[in-house]
Amino acid sequence: MPRKKPPSLLLVDGYNIIGSWADLILLKETVSLEAARRQLIEDLLSFSASRNYNTEVVFDAHFQRQPAAREVITSYFTVAYTNYLQTADTFIEARCARLRPEMHRQHVIVATSDRSHQQTILGFGASWMSAQQLQTEVAIASTQMQRQRQKKSPTSGRFLFKSLDPSAQKKLSDMRLGLHDQNSQKNLKNSRSNLAKGEHF
Predict the structure, then answer these.
(1) Domain locations in the chain?
(2) Which of 19, 83, 91, 183 is deepest in the core (most CB within 10 A)?
(3) What pLDDT digit, counting tens, does each position of 57-113 carry?
């Protein structure tokens, strides 16, 4: 009996998307980069749930002298931070290189508008999606989810949020309240400690 194919993996160049979506550019300029990051994560979390994707959003280290780390939001959604001076491009390319032997059974999609990055990604066997294509897909998924919510119960509230486990709900609530940075620092320290002990992702 053939093995069931795992869900598609979506790898997202976080800052490339923030720099390409008009609403996120505005949020970054009028509020903060952290606010734009939070909004992107929330948008992609909803989208990933609706499309049954495993998603990794990758953010450049931005010259911070910290080792690579990752934060697990849900079982299907992870936020990764690159090593000092490592770009999201090189991080994603290395990820695709490791996944290449498995791409015949798992579909890998890379979301970025970096054209120089595109050919490398395609060469590994992954699919490529522009920032604009991703934005369109996210908007379509959001509309579909709203319609489904209205059919189930007009007063059901945030359907996706309520469907998350308590730990993921707390992480998203902390992000909205501005507590995310404090909790993330502790989580990232633990993650970096694990990486130093030889755990990899």
Answers:
(1) 9-196
(2) 91
(3) 999 986 667 777 889 999 999 999 998 888 999 999 999 999 999 888 899 999 999
pLDDT in tens, 127-145: 999 999 999 999 999 998 8
Report pTM: 0.76
